[in-house]
Write a structure and sequence with these properties.
Blueprint (H helix, E strand, L loop, with lengths): L1 E5 L13 E5 L2 E8 L13 H18 L7 E8 L2 H6 L1 H12 L5 E6 L10 E9 L1
Parallel strand pairs: 4-5
Antiparallel strand pairs: 1-2, 3-6, 4-6
Helix pairs in contact: 1-3
Amino acid sequence: MSLQRINPAELSPPTGFSHAVTATGSRVVFLAGQTALDPAGKVTGETLPAQFETALTNLLTALRAAGGTPAALARVTVYATDVAAYRAHAPELGRIWHRLAGRDYPAMAVIGATRLWDEQAMVELDGFAVLP
């Protein structure tokens, strides 16, 4: 498996994402949207960063169960109920990402959502990974 992150000089420098990712491998893992649900199905975390950490942990748990690592992530989409709050917390969210997933970023997007499936959820992450 190999992922190549492409960030053309003609585009603004990426911060917390890659502009494009090419992937070669034999298996694609599609990761369902994950929020800050605990094992009992309750949303945890009173702040956006706390919920982001749990949602990312849940996404990576699903990926590891499928045989992948964070480096295999090719694409992640973040759905946030408050994009301004997401931007305000971006440095902290970046530190959480680095601690849990490393410094290689997949192609990413942040999309504003009126609400998520679980009404208390502030953020949801989904994505796909390419495995050998």
